[in-house]
């Protein structure tokens, strides 16, 4: 499967290098992404007007793709505001304080709860469900907001999503591409997911504790005017609304129960991904309306709109710097053809996937190199920030390597899946980890920087383990 690489491929690769370098140096990447979009548009259309128009159209495409995440975050923020101002949030988290008594217990407790939740209906709805409940507890016992975001992110978008053992969306894509049963890929992924999860989370926790002790920790908060924590869920004392203790206690029980019913509905109705997110979002809207009407009475109609405006302002404020970056990376997939036409070679599946195929076609075929190649290819295909667009490619390349080697198809397929999901599913690419960052009120770029070393170390160790399993 030979793909001819055009200048467009190499320009895209050069800009990926620039962007990754700026991310590591904690510099803003918006301008370089806009220049990259312009350069790709100029190569594709060979006209100044086409390349300039491509910038705007790529922004529109990225906004459309991200709108579901923007909406769920905005709605949950709006709901969280009214829960905080009525004191219901405090009543909800009170029973959890006896379990999360220290920063360490808060980190691992939030992570494990997030992992279990994410297994059942994927991480983004999971972050929305548990963030409002657990973040205040974590901050209260001394865990930084960025530490809580790391826990939700690594355990949810990393461990849970890379295995995806309940919904099975990820293993089905890779298994189909590799011509294997889903069960064999899931079985092969278990040791890899365990190793990757343990190494990454333990490393992240150790680095966090070390930096806090040395005074070099930066929390990367993005909200302003909320006192010492800056979190989106920080209490707003000046706008407290009174409810009777009985009403608060009743609502504190009823609200988690409604979200638990959502989980049951997801099982019964087989909802997943966007459908699961929509169910959570709709439930949050009903909770927002009901609580606002109870708390504000005659002003309930106007206050409902006011809370929604607060939520949308926050959502778009957080996504403002993210959309240009996402727009560039979406051009690595199907967005390029949609925006600029069929410029790529015959048989191309997008710039990113073409680069992955080219990489796989220029390395010797043996177990060790096969494992390294699948990790690198998986990571590259994850750079578009979806995590899922390239895992079919990982499955097909794993099949090629396994055929040449004579064994290890399931292990190589699972390794490519783990690498693609960890990189693109929401631990390293800033716009992909927006849910956890937004709920905790921290910078997605700072969260990506914090995750970088632990995830790369974890990928290295997991690749070595896979070499022995092939």
TrEMBL record:
**Where on the tree of life does the source sit, at the highest rank?**
Bacteria
**Coiled coil ranges:** none
The reply to whether Transmembrane figures as a keyword in the UniProt entry is yes
Keywords in alphabetical order, please.
Membrane, Transmembrane, Transmembrane helix
Where, by residue number, does the polypeptide cross the bilayer? 6-24, 31-60, 66-84, 104-121, 127-143, 150-168, 188-208, 250-270, 276-295, 307-331, 368-388, 400-422, 428-445, 452-469
Q: Does the keyword Transmembrane apply?
A: yes
Q: Indicate what this protein is called per its UniProt record.
A: Transporter
| Provenance organism | Paenibacillus ferrarius
Q: Tell me the lineage of the source organism.
A: Bacteria, Bacillati, Bacillota, Bacilli, Bacillales
């Amino acid at each position: 499967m030979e793909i001819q690489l055009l200048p467009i491929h190499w320009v895209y690769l050069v800009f990926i290098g620039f962007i990754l370098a700026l991310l590591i140096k904690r510099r803003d990447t918006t301008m370089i992404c806009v220049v990259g979009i312009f350069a790709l548009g100029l190569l594709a259309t060979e006209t100044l007007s086409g390349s300039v128009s491509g910038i705007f159209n790529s922004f529109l495409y990225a906004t459309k793709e991200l709108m579901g995440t923007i909406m769920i975050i905005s709605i949950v923020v709006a709901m969280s505001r009214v829960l905080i101002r009525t004191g219901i949030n405090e009543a909800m988290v009170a029973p959890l304080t006896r379990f999360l008594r220290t920063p360490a217990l808060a980190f691992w407790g939030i992570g494990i709860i997030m992992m279990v939740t994410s297994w059942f209906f994927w991480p983004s709805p999971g972050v929305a469900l548990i963030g409002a409940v657990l973040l205040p507890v974590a901050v209260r016992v001394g865990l930084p907001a960025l530490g809580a975001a790391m826990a939700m992110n690594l355990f949810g978008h990393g461990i849970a999503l890379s295995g995806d053992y309940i919904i099975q969306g990820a293993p089905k894509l890779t298994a189909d591409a590799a011509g294997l049963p889903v069960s064999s890929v899931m079985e092969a992924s278990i040791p890899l997911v365990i190793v990757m999860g343990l190494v990454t989370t333990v490393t992240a926790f150790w680095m966090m504790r070390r930096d806090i002790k040395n005074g070099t920790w930066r929390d990367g908060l993005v909200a302003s005017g909320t006192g010492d924590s800056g979190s989106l869920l920080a209490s707003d004392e000046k706008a407290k609304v009174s409810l009777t203790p009985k009403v608060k206690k009743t609502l504190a029980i009823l609200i988690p129960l409604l979200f638990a019913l959502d989980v049951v509905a997801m099982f019964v109705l087989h909802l997943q991904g966007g459908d699961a997110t929509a169910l959570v979002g709709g439930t949050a809207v009903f909770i927002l309306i009901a609580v606002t009407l109870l708390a504000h009475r005659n002003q309930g109609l106007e206050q409902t709109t006011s809370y929604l405006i607060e939520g949308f302002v926050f959502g778009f404020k957080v996504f403002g710097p993210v959309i240009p970056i996402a727009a560039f990376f979406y051009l690595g997939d199907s967005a390029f053809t949609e925006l600029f036409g069929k410029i790529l070679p015959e048989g191309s599946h997008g710039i990113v996937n073409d680069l992955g195929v080219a990489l796989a076609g220029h390395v010797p075929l043996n177990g060790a190199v096969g494992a390294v190649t699948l990790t690198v290819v998986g990571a590259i295909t994850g750079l578009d920030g979806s995590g899922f667009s390239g895992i079919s490619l990982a499955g097909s390349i794993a099949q090629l390597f396994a055929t040449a080697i004579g064994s290890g198809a399931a292990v190589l397929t699972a390794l490519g899946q783990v690498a693609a999901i960890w990189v693109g599913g929401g631990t390293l690419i800033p716009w992909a980890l927006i849910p956890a960052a937004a709920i905790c009120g921290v910078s997605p770029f700072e969260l990506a920087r914090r995750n970088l070393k632990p995830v790369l170390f974890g990928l290295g160790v997991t690749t070595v383990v896979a070499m022995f399993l092939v």
